[in-house]
Amino acid sequence: MEITREQASSAKDQDVQQYLTFLIGGEEYAVSLLKVKEIIEYDVVTKVPKTPEWVRGVINLRGSVVPVVDLAVKFRQAPSVIGKLTCIVIAEVECEGEATVMGVMADAVSQVIDLKPEEIELPPAFGTRVKVDYLLGMARAGKKFCLILDTEKVLSTDELLDLATSVEESDANPEAEAPLADIAADGVEQLAEA
Question: Considering only CA atoms, which of 37, 125, 29 is closest in space to residue 77?
């Protein structure tokens, strides 16, 4: 059986995937459009104690509690500054076989782009602010690159679970925090003397 020219071109079109691009700290990032549920205006975010600094807090999304992640902090940049275009990209990720909804703060949403697999390059081994295992690849965006994020890894709840375990252990063993408290107190005394 022969494949016609139209069938070949439609097969190529099926390889095209769509990505939502957005800005964080002046850099352009992208996530698969299939993972994006919606984009909402940045509104009231409630800070939750004992969460990592990259968890901005939680929002009430139609009765559901949704954690909001500040990827700028997770990528070791200055925390995102809330502006007129700041929004939250609501994404769905797999966590232990279940779909989990997470929010990602974005300085602004850019556009939806179509990419073929051959247009996506492998991430470099160094030179980006993002852990390489957070990246699926990179796509050219003019003279710069757009970093394509692996939402399953960058929004993984494993880090939150690891943190919760370490917090529970430190709560159960107050002496574990004492050396850090002593170091902090010594540092404050030294600054006061200087």
Answer: 29
Q: CA 103 to CA 68: how far, in whole Å?
A: 4
124-182: pLDDT as tens digits: 766 656 667 788 889 887 778 899 999 888 887 665 555 444 444 444 444 433 333 33
Residue 10, classed as helix, strand or coil, is helix
Q: Which of 92, 91, 82 is nearest to 24 (CA)?
A: 82
Question: pTM score, two decimals?
Answer: 0.70
- What number of H helices and E strands is found in the chain? 5, 11
- DSSP type of residue 79: P
Which letter does DSSP use for residue 7 in this model?
Answer: H
Helix (H) or strand (E) holding 58: strand 55-61
Longest dimension (CA), the chain: 86
